[in-house]
Amino acid sequence: NVQFFKGDLREEETLEKLKAAVQGFYDLVISDMSAKLTGIREADQAASAGCAELALWVADQILRPNGNLVIKVF
Questions:
Q1: Contact 30, 52 (CB under 8 A)
Q2: What is the dihedral of CA 43, 49, 51, 57, to 10 degrees?
Q3: pTM, full prediction
Q4: pLDDT tens digit string along 7-56?
Q5: What is the pLDDT of residue 40?
Q6: What is the structure's pLDDT at 6?
Q7: Among 57, 25, 50, which residue's Cα sits nearest to residue 36?
Q8: Phi, psi of 14 (to 5 degrees)
Q9: How many Å apart are CA 63 and CA 13, to the nearest integer?
Q10: Mean of the pLDDT values across residues 48-68?
């Protein structure tokens, strides 16, 4: 059973869709988020870290205990 979602996790509506899709919690969250790259290394690194932190926060909300999280980071 695999479900794919596309949306902005900074919007409450997206998080509510994720929660409503299952009864209980998820076993796995895979994050492929990416901020718009600017070419400025420090800014891009900070934006990528921000995406990873958001993925971690969302996973904390929707993962079952001992669930897994995979995050892509640049």
A1: no
A2: -150
A3: 0.83
A4: 888 899 988 888 888 878 999 999 989 889 999 999 999 999 999 999 99
A5: 96
A6: 86
A7: 50
A8: -65, -45
A9: 18
A10: 94
Do 45 and 34 contact (CB within 8 A), yes or no?
Answer: no
Residue type, 69: L
User: Quick one: tokens of 59?
Assistant: 């996973």
Identify whether 72 is a catalytic site residue.
yes
Q: Around 30, how many Cα atoms within 13 Å sit in the side-chain half-sphere?
A: 5
Choosing from 6, 17, 36, 72, the catalytic residue is 72
Positive or negative: CA dihedral 36, 39, 42, 48 = positive
Find the DSSP H helices in 1-74: 12-21, 41-62
For the record, the structure tokens of 34 come out as 């990416």
Q: Cα(58)–Cα(43) distance, rounded to whole angstroms?
A: 23
